[in-house]
Write a structure and sequence with these properties.
Blueprint lengths: L2 E3 L8 H10 L4 E8 L7 H7 L15 E6 L3 H14 L4 E5 L4 H5 L10 H14 L6 E6 L8 H10 L4 E5 L16 H7 L4 E4 L5 H11 L3 E4 L1 H5 L3 H10 L8 H5 L1 H10 L8 H15 L4 H10 L5 H8 L2
Parallel strand pairs: 1-2, 1-8, 2-3, 3-4, 4-5, 5-6, 6-7, 7-8
Helix pairs in contact: 1-12, 3-5, 5-6, 12-13, 13-14
Length: 317
Amino acid sequence: MRISLAPMEGVLDAPLREILTRLGHYDLCVSEFIRISDQGLPSKVFYRLCPELRRNGQTSSGTPVRVQLLGNNPETLSISAKKAVALGSPGIDLNFGCPAKTVNKNKGGAILLKEPNSIYSIINTVRKAVPEEFPVTAKMRLGFDTDENALEIAKGIQSAGADELVIHARTKVQGYKPPAHWHLLAEIKETLSIPVIANGEVWTLKDYNACREASQCSDIMIGRGAIAAPFLIEEIRSSLQGTVPPIRTWEKDTKPLLAEYYDACMPDGTPKQEAYLVGRVKQWLNMMSWQNPEAKIEFAEVKRLRKKSEIFNALQL
């Protein structure tokens, strides 16, 4: 019953991974994707997007962080994968699920679900390049504009050599529109011999249990729900262990995380980065508002503010 923290481009960065993995036990994190084109990348790019590589590929609380690569060139992806594990990544994840138009336009992410042979070639080439002790995994959606070929794509990913597969239970065209079609994962889980991890639309403990039941997957990956409710992982773990989770409040427990995040994003306090950091804090507060009425009220009060002092005063941080 593993629980993983999903990669979310432009949202779930290293400072946020650091905070969320400290609040509760995640078995694994996957980094924001590192885009690989026809040329290799210097080490500094890997360290910038996955600074946990400098700590043996872990957050400070000990959660492994697997580097995710995105691209369509099997050779450059395999070279980059070898580099990532040499730098400290405990494995490689390959992105075949990103729905972003810019990414798809450049033949990356979910667009490759239209080309199962390309997916096979990428995984097979990367798997051969990466030492056997490092897992090579993949993340996909149910398809691009239809889920009719989801099982065949998943079978191809397994036969290419992937060690496990995460499936976001929607197509690219469906985006993030509810519902997630967890039940469609059950046949895939039953057919494949490698682990299948369910992903998509897990916001609450009730959703977590419903996802496991419908998908028949014991392993779950959580993304937006973990960001909107930072203590969701604590609630899930307590449920699995048959214990009562601590009572958490917005004022005492959740809101102070925003100040911690600001500091974590800019440990040296460089003034020129204030606009960026304020934006990150407001982004997280906005995502918290999806699940928390108190956060919704506070976001409405600060969303037009631009300075740290104004925002922190308004939030009483």
